[in-house]
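Hi L.,

As promised, DUF659 domain-containing protein:
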Amino acid sequence: LRKITPQQQVHLNKLLAAWIAHHFRPMIIVEDEGFIAVIRYITEDISAVQVSLPERTKISQEIVALAVEYRKRVKLAMKVTCDIWTARNSKSYISVTVHYVDNEFCPQSWTLEHMACLAHCLHLVVGGAMIKKKRRSESADEPELAAD
């Protein structure tokens, strides 16, 4: 039997991880006797190639790496904007909109939600965080006193 190269093994692991993640398969499938038998039949019996199947811990690592890569792609492909306003009745609103370019290169926008009162809550949270950051930066500027 011919052994696969290390590069081919890495590629196989990534393909297997992508298949498991995209189709919501359990990671333990790589240790299932039936799955192993099918892979062994295709590789060893038909193709005369020796393949080592990764353990589920290795697949788990590959899926995490895949998720990191997909998050990067989504960050590059989508942008999120917020709009805050007050209506004439003094009620505050916030909306969250996702902007992206579709497969035909047409700009698209999708408003996720607009709701009342959340704007005030968001203002309080951001204001509180800014105050904490300011306090930390002010205390960092103060010289430390030597202990006796």
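Helices lie at 6-22, 33-46, 56-77, 118-141.

Thanks again for sending the construct details.

K.
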